[in-house]
Amino acid sequence: MPCTKCRADFNLITWKIKCIDCEQYHCSKCLRKMQGSLFCEKCLILNKRPPDRERLMELRSKDLRDYLNKNKISTHGLVEKAELVELFYRCTIPVRSRRSNKGLSSVFTGSVPNLASQSQDHINNLRTNIESNINNVRSYAENALHNLGSRVGPNLPNHSQHDDSENPQFSSNVQQNSYFYTTFNNSQPTSSSSSHDIPNQQEAPSHETTSASSSPPHKYPKLSDFATAEELNELSVKQLKELLTLNRVDYKGCVEKSELLDRATRLWNDSNQYKNEDLEEASVDNLCKICMDAPLDCVILECGHMATCVNCGKRLAECPICRQYVTRVVRTFKA
């Protein structure tokens, strides 16, 4: 297994060492020490505080996304590297606590902790907790049965005592059996009534949850939803910005709604023009080099190459021509 960065084989000169953050194996030449721990170059940039924007832009989008997700920061909907870097700056990511050297020192000095005794103490604590919980449940059940019997006992019929007064042992047995029978019969309507009351109590919250869940999710506007360019006038400023952002059209400097509407109208006309054209008769040089099903309508930054359509460009991590990392994709229009 070679080094992750320089792909050099491990030997007596280049040792195999694991990075303390990403846990990938590197040679001793590719690791750097920070705060007494060894990091690879990528983890050194990610764990630097305050972060360096220029160094972060040199990393891959996949590395930034994996680091943010590992720290439980959602990157849903973020495609461009600049957006990931901005999220990296906005969120406060603490530096993870590093492993101390106490474990190694204890090994060399012979003071290894007794793991068996610690595990046995933990098992004993769990056992005592379980036994105390069982005793609490048992006492609660006994008290509940006692309270239920005290409520039902005084209302018992006394006809069995009058009929069998000659045999006191038989009458006591009959009284005991009738007592348990009456207790069981009277406890059934209580449980059934309580079971009928519980759905009534939960009916209102369930209705609220269904009404909340039935609310439709937010729908982003698409160019295919509009038959004519005049229908774009019905959109709000927020919807126009969402439409331009999804199609990678820069609206920086637009203040009025009319300016946003002009760019959205130009976008719709340009897209509709591509639909009316016959792509089979179009030149191969003007088609997307990935899907070959759409025209070239975007430029890849920072390299500036035009090789894909907008839909394919949004999914790229590297330029297919020069293999440079893609920071963002901008829509282009024909003159």
UniProtKB/TrEMBL annotation:
Region (Disordered): 148-222
CDD domains per record: RING-HC_CARP
Subcellular location: Cell membrane
Main subcellular location of this protein, as a coarse class: membrane
InterPro entries reported in the protein's UniProt record: RING-FYVE_E3_ubiquitin-ligase, RNF34_RFFL_HeH, RNF34_RFFL_SAP, SAP_dom_sf, Znf_FYVE_PHD, Znf_RING, Znf_RING/FYVE/PHD
Spans traversing the lipid bilayer: none
PANTHER family per record: CASPASE REGULATOR, RING FINGER DOMAIN-CONTAINING, E3 UBIQUITIN-PROTEIN LIGASE RIFIFYLIN-LIKE PROTEIN
Pfam families, A to Z: RNF34L-like_3rd (PF22968), SAP_RNF34_RFFL (PF23632), zf-C3HC4_3 (PF13920)
One GO-annotated biological process of the protein: protein K48-linked ubiquitination
Compositionally biased residues, Polar residues: 167-216
GO cellular component: cytoplasm; plasma membrane
Domain RING-type: 288-323
Molecular function via GO: ubiquitin protein ligase activity; zinc ion binding
Superkingdom of origin: Eukaryota
Protein name per the record: RING-type domain-containing protein
Topology with respect to the bilayer: Peripheral membrane protein
